[in-house]
Design goal:
Layout: H1 2-31, H2 38-45, H3 49-55, H4 59-72, H5 77-80, H6 87-102, H7 105-117, H8 122-149, H9 158-173, H10 175-179, H11 187-205
Helix pairs in contact: 1-2, 1-7, 2-3, 4-8, 6-9, 6-11, 7-8, 8-9, 9-11
Length: 211
């Protein structure tokens, strides 16, 4: 019985955490980071102030959670960094994972919040970069380095290669959404964009394999 109650409490806590993060993201986007209070977030999430303060004592802590969860959601290390051995397969897995991640409305909202508030709150941009973008980028860089070490790719500069590969995908999936409210590519369009990014990267970096 105690174990069941404990599991129930954990589920409730997680549900409340998700509600808080969703409410905060919406309020930050519509009213700005500075224009949103923790009290208003608690009201939007339908939780008490004490519940919110217990999980997130400051707005900075809450924004940190938003960034971390946005980048980690549906992007496990196993997908973000596949095992070396098949460069095409690895790039394809990474590419589709990245397209799904940055194509979510929540990710677009997060970037908009950061860009809008950057002049007054530069720490938000730093948080977005260090807790979100950089760990994901580093994972892809390490994967390319592992393929280079295995002899499957000739990637002397894995940092540049990762930047090029992810940039090709983001340039189609994410950045048009920042300016075009009606930008909504189909799943097949996104698959094609990922495939082309993979082919371009293979053409540039794949090692010649014996027939």
């Amino acid at each position: 019985m105690a174990a069941e109650l404990s599991a129930h409490h954990r589920r409730l806590a997680q549900q409340k955490r998700e509600a808080i993060i969703a409410a905060a993201t919406d309020l930050f986007l519509n009213h700005g980071y500075d224009g949103t209070s923790l009290a208003r977030i608690a009201e939007g999430a339908a939780v008490s102030k004490s519940t919110l303060f217990k999980q997130f004592p400051t707005k900075a802590a809450l924004f940190e959670a938003i960034v971390t969860e946005s980048w980690q959601r549906d992007a496990t290390d196993a997908v973000a960094r596949p095992q070396a051995g098949d460069l095409r397969s690895g790039l394809t897995s990474i590419g589709h994972c990245y397209a799904d991640l940055i194509g979510r409305p929540g990710m677009t909202a997060l970037f908009r919040i950061v860009i809008a508030e950057l002049p007054r709150f530069p720490e938000l941009g730093l948080m977005q970069f260090q807790l979100g973008k950089l760990p994901y980028f580093t994972s892809v860089q390490r994967y390319l380095e592992s393929e280079h070490e295995a002899g499957n790719a000739d990637v002397a500069d894995a940092e540049s290669a990762a930047n090029q590969f992810l940039g090709m995908i983001a340039n189609y999936v994410l950045w048009p959404r920042m300016l075009l409210t009606d930008w909504n590519p189909t799943a097949s369009d996104i698959r094609y964009a990922v495939e082309q990014a993979v082919e371009t990267t293979l053409a540039r970096y794949a090692s010649d394999q014996p027939a």
